[in-house]
Each structure stands twice: as C-alpha cells, then as structure tokens.
Design brief:
- Keywords: Membrane, Transmembrane, Transmembrane helix.
- InterPro entries: EamA_dom (IPR000620), EmrE-like (IPR037185), Solute_c_fam_35_mem_F3/F4 (IPR026505).
- This is EamA domain-containing protein.
- The protein is mainly α and 459 residues long.
- It has 18 helices and no strands.
- It starts with 10 loop residues before the first helix and ends with a helix.
Length: 459
C-alpha cells in the first residue's frame, strides 16, 4: 500500500503547544498516548554528540516558554484530535480509491508487475518535498516575512528540519540511556527535552559538526523507514492477484493488533481494557468478513486457477505484522515533537527520493531471476499507475500525520473502516454481492473504532 494536500497547520505554534506539556512529563512519554511509563533513573554523564543549543534561547527572548494550564492543554489536545480525525477520513477515502484502481490495473488491464507499480508509486512521494517547502516558506502564515531570496527560504526550511531531527536524535539518546540506567531524575531528563522543544526552531543555530551529524542521522533514518515500509507494501501489491480484495483488505487491517502488541513492547504502552476490547471487536469483524467471503466464493480467483490462495493470505498476514511494526517504529523514532506535520511530509518526500535513487535495484534483479519480467506499460496503464501513486501519496502522508498526532493503534484501527467501504465499493462498481458477513463484520469493526475514539477522548 501506499502516505499531502495543503497543510493549514501553523507548525511553529503547534509545536510550541505540543511540546510544553511534554517537557513536564517523563522523558519518552508522548502527549495524548501512554507510550512510556515514568521511571526513576540514575544520574550519568550523558552529554550527547549534538548538544542542546543554548544560543537560540538567549538570542530569542520571545521564545521563553509559557506554562499552559490544564484547560489550555485539554483544548489543544481536542483540537489536535479533531484535525487528526479529518485527516483520517481523507486517508480512508484515498485508500479505498487506490485499492480499487490497483485491482483494475493488475486484473482488468492485465499489467501484473507489483514491484514496478510499487516503485513508481513510492518514487512519486518525492513530490511531497517541494510541495511542503513551498507551503512552509511561501504560503504558511508562520513563515517569516523577512524571507526574500530562494537561498534564505531554503536555509529557513533546512533549519526547521534540523530542529525536528535534533529532537529525534536526542530522544534516541535518552532511549539508550533509559535502557542502561535506572535512577536519573525525570526532571533532569524533562529539562533536556525542553531545551530543544520549547523554543522557536527557526532561530536555532547549528555548528558544521552538528549539521553533519544530523544529516547523517536523517539519511539513515529515512533509508531505514523506506526499506521497512517497502517490504509490507510489496507484499500488498503482490497479493492483489493472489486473493480477493475483501480478504486482502481485511487481513492487512489486522495491523492494528500488531501495532498494539509492538506499542506495548517498544513504546511501553499500558494495557487498557477498552483498547483491548476495541482491537478484539475489530479483529472479530475481520474474521467474520474473511470467513464468510471464503464460504461465499464463486470458485474463481483473479488468476482463474483457484478460489482463494492460502499463500496469498499468509503473505498478507506477514505484511500486516510488518505494517504494525513499521507504524510503531515510526512513532518512536520518526515522530518529532517539533513541527511534526512539516517533518512528516518532508519524511514522505525523502522516502520518495530514496526509493527513486536507490530501490530500483530489485527491478533488473527480479527480471534476471524470472520473478517479474520487466515490460513497459502502455500509456493508459502508465496514467493509471500515476493515479495509484497520487492516491498512495495522499494516503501515506495523511497516515503518517495521524500516527504522529495520535497513536499507532488509533491510526490502524481507524483505517479498518476501509474494510466495509471496500466491500461496498466492489458492490457498486463491480456488482459483487455484499453478504451478511460483510455487514456484521463491518459493524463490529466500526464499534471497535468508536470505543477507541472514546478512549482517546478520555485521555
């Protein structure tokens, strides 16, 4: 599967609102989620390679942090949740359209080249990079009015990304310290975060050595996230011709179960009864849809050889597990508290650049192995692939924002609404019947999502 739109978020103000409460919380704890529990830790010499920059604090008196009250924090959380819900709706809509178009290209058009389609789709993400740059430096109300030349705008944008990367870099150092030390005071760790997160990112000055370290860290972070995301995405494209779209969508949406499991293991999220119930209802709905659609099969698969491929279902389940893992890894290592929306869209664009410049290697390799013989698409097929890429860009950009603003479990369970929507779309466009299993399963999934929404509102 594949992560845009005009962002009206004021990144500087949003980052200040989001980081104030986080500075007073234990290190590693994410606002709005229960990602890490408080612990006592020992005092050690933990001076990071890239030091917290104090020059910006002294040179920008307007950046002095202001303590927010409980009402202000609640209002900010509610506003962020509403924005995430709207973005989630766009995410779901783009997913359904992308799913049906991918099915059409690989079956009706007969262009079954999953990795090539994936390569074009993910390379297309590179458009997010200049799009975010134009919005941040030309359109955004938070852009400084003093920017006049292109060089100044590039420098301003680069400083925003460095500030976000610096936040991620120092949090990674804190994660390592937490795992090796037991009694450093939480107030000391919180003050470390405050020094990078509480001040205007546009005024931070980095040395040449710091720029080099952060650039290398950003490259390896982008390369790792791109590679990690390519594997389950390829499995999804490959399974389109191996099983039904209803089964594929249902099985891949079990990623919420794996996201919750990995959130407990990697983010130290607490086991909450309502979240467990939400995931259980969602998985129950997945099982009902999958089993009833299997029973109602007409004996014909997309390849005409068999009704449903067990291998396709197994590969889909593996891909779902990897998706859940990728969501949690992104939340932990690639979701900064400083300008999160700007960084999410920039990361999406950088992942497209990495895909285009480096991940073309499997194409000739698969051709040589006979796994996927390379054939250039016709103009109609290529235009359809570009549409798939555009929808994938919208989907993944929105999904990354939802994960960064809420939690991996909320995003994964929210996307589960695509299961009944895909079944409904198949009925409307392809005259495929919608059985009682699709209806009951869809209602169970929506009930689980409603419980999760209520749980997130409470917290």
């Amino acid at each position: 599967m594949s992560r845009s739109g005009t962002r009206k978020t004021r990144d500087s103000a949003a980052s200040l609102n989001q980081t104030q409460p986080a500075a007073a919380a234990p290190a590693g704890q994410t606002t709005g989620t229960n990602n890490c529990s408080s612990q006592s830790r020992s005092q050690r010499d933990t001076t990071p390679l890239v030091p917290q920059n104090s020059t910006a604090r002294n040179s920008h008196p307007e950046a002095i942090p202001i303590e927010d009250g409980p009402d202000d924090r609640h209002h900010a959380d509610a506003k962020r949740f509403r924005m995430a819900s709207i973005i989630l709706f766009v995410c779901i809509l783009s997913f359904v359209m992308q799913t049906e178009l991918t099915k059409f290209v690989q079956t009706s058009m007969g262009y079954h080249k999953p990795y090539f389609i994936l390569y074009i789709s993910h390379s297309f993400w590179a458009i997010a990079l200049p799009a975010q740059f134009i919005y941040t430096t030309y359109i955004s109300p938070s852009a400084p009015t003093s920017l006049s030349s292109l060089h100044e705008r590039i420098d301003y944008f680069a400083r925003l990304i460095r500030q976000s990367t610096s936040d991620l870099y120092h949090r990674k150092a804190e994660y390592i310290m937490v795992n090796t030390s037991e009694s450093t005071s939480s107030s000391t760790l919180a003050s470390n975060f405050q020094s990078t997160a509480s001040f205007s990112s546009a005024t931070t000055v980095f040395t040449s050595r710091e720029k080099s370290v952060l650039s290398k860290y950003l490259f390896w972070l982008t390369f790792g996230m791109t590679t990690l995301f390519m594997v389950p995405s390829y499995l999804w494209y490959a399974c389109v011709a191996m099983t039904s779209m209803a089964n594929l969508t249902a099985i891949y949406n079990t990623a919420c179960f794996f996201a919750y499991l990995f959130s407990i293991l990697l983010l130290r999220e607490k086991i909450v009864a309502n979240k467990v119930l939400a995931v259980f209802l969602s998985l129950l709905g997945v099982a009902v849809i999958s089993l009833t659609s299997r029973d109602a099969g007409d004996g014909k698969s997309v390849t005409g050889k068999q009704s449903f491929s067990m291998a396709g279902d197994v590969l889909a389940l593996i891909g779902a597990a990897l998706y859940g893992f990728e969501e949690v890894v992104y939340k932990k290592y690639a979701s900064p508290k400083v300008t999160p929306v700007t960084f999410a869209n920039t990361m999406t664009g950088l992942m497209g650049v990495v895909t285009f410049t480096m991940l073309w290697v499997p194409i000739p390799l698969f051709h040589w192995m006979g796994h996927e013989i390379m054939e250039l698409p016709t103009l109609k097929e290529f235009l359809s692939i570009l549409m798939i890429a555009t929808l994938g860009l919208i989907y993944n950009g929105c999904f990354m924002i939802v994960v960064s603003q809420t939690s991996p479990v909320f995003a994964a369970v929210g996307v589960m609404a695509t299961i009944p929507l895909v079944a409904l779309t198949d009925w409307v466009l392809f005259n495929e019947s919608v059985g009682w299993g699709n209806i009951l399963g869809g209602l169970s999934i929506l009930a689980g999502f409603a419980i999760l929404v209520r749980e997130n509102r409470k917290r």
